[in-house]
Amino acid sequence: MGIENLMTFIVTALLFIMTPGIDTVFVLNKSIGQGKKSGVYASFGVNAGVLVHTFFAALGLSVLIGKSTFALTLIKFLGAGYLIYLGFLKLKNKEEFIPTDKNKLNKNSKNDFWTGFLTNALNPKVALFFLAFFPQFINVNQMDNPIPFLLLGITYALIGIVWFLILTLFASVFSQKLRSIPKSGRWLNKLSGLIFIVMGIKIALAKI
């Protein structure tokens, strides 16, 4: 299928995914603050964002975006602004962990999916990373073929889902212990909010 050294790709991708970053912080935040279900939705949302970058890479759109300073800058500031917005929402949130109302819980979980999706899809560094990383494992004669890019992207996303679900499982156990501490949910919201704001500022100031 035009892919070379697939096992090396899987091992390398796992190491990249396991390295703490925005996605890891986001999934942990949802898992600890809102429980396992939110963490699961967030995990799938983050990796759905990976598939967007994969699709762009397969069509060659990532190359065009990568050559456009304006497009990269626009995406960078959109992503940074979104993270800062999430951070301020967290700082204002005074709820204590998981809401008891089932309708609200289901709505929050769906929001977690779309928030994770946008957090990843609006990160230009992910697109640039794929452009640099994927071609290392594609036959030079297949660079114009979208199939290898799609297969590598799907593989990357599946590895990410497995890893983040494992994180979610462990973090949700920690969440149960935190719930027994008075006002711990509010303090967790404040901490998470500050982390998102700092990451948003970091992305905004980063050179591409």
From TrEMBL:
InterPro entries (alphabetical): LeuE-type (IPR001123)
Subcellular location: Cell membrane
Membrane topology listed for this record: Multi-pass membrane protein
Source taxon at top rank: Bacteria
A GO cellular component entry from the record: plasma membrane
TM helices/strands, residue ranges: 6-28, 40-64, 70-91, 112-134, 154-175, 187-205
Keywords for the protein's UniProt record, in alphabetical order: Cell membrane, Membrane, Transmembrane, Transmembrane helix
Pfam families to which the protein is assigned, alphabetical: LysE
Molecular function in Gene Ontology: amino acid transmembrane transporter activity
Protein name: Threonine/homoserine/homoserine lactone efflux protein
Native species: Zhouia amylolytica
Organism lineage: Bacteria, Pseudomonadati, Bacteroidota, Flavobacteriia, Flavobacteriales
